[in-house]
Write a structure and sequence with these properties.
alpha+beta, 3 strands, 3-stranded antiparallel sheet, 3 helices, 18% strand
Length: 79
């Protein structure tokens, strides 16, 4: 990581929700790079997104490029 300031958690969670609702599919590393945080922080954010009260229906696929995240098929997406 570089000296770029990280984005606070609330902003990250809103960013992630909007990205997934728009149809985004991304790896943990890609998201960490975009949000200037560690991959471990993204993993904690994903747990928070899937837990109460948010319960965002995410799918995680383990690929050769790392964990790939997306919104569960059939989940409501933003128009």
């Amino acid at each position: 990581m570089d000296s770029t300031p990280s984005i606070n958690k609330a902003v990250r969670l809103v960013y992630l929700i909007r990205a997934f609702e728009a149809g985004r599919v991304a790896t943990t590393s890609e998201l960490a790079g975009e949000l200037c945080v560690s991959p471990r922080t993204i993993l904690r954010d994903m747990v928070d997104l899937q837990s109460e009260p948010l319960r965002v229906p995410l799918i995680c696929d383990n690929t050769r490029h790392g964990l790939r995240w997306s919104l569960m098929e059939g989940a409501q997406r933003a128009s």
